Amino acid sequence: MKVLSIDVGIKNLALCLFKIENKEKYEIEKWNVVNLCNEIVINCHCGKPAKYNNKENYCCKKHIKDTNLSLIHPELDIKKLKKKKIMDIREILTTHQIDFNSKQS
């Protein structure tokens, strides 16, 4: 008897095909993972995955220092800002000299 096991995830589909002869004897005939996203992986010139780009240049974390690409301060990351209170966000904007309309907020 053959059994096909399929696991569908958000990015990948995994499949395993078993050949089962009895309760003690089985064999894996095929085991595979298929990427469902067709993501294009772009690497830095050193071969590591690029984390930063400006539409023309792609750099890893190590080589970003060698370019003229500007980085956003980690404190200004949108995921972190969403978790902060408005008073904390105002303070961060003031610290980084970013203009904002204080009357609206």
From TrEMBL:
Gene3D superfamilies: Ribonuclease H-like superfamily/Ribonuclease H (3.30.420.10). InterPro entries: RNaseH-like_sf, RNaseH_sf, Ydc2_cat. Pfam families: Ydc2-catalyt (PF09159). Coiled coil: none annotated. Residues 3-51 form the Mitochondrial resolvase Ydc2 catalytic domain. One of its GO terms (molecular function) is nucleic acid binding. SUPFAM superfamilies: Ribonuclease H-like. This is Mitochondrial resolvase Ydc2 catalytic domain-containing protein. It comes from marine sediment metagenome.
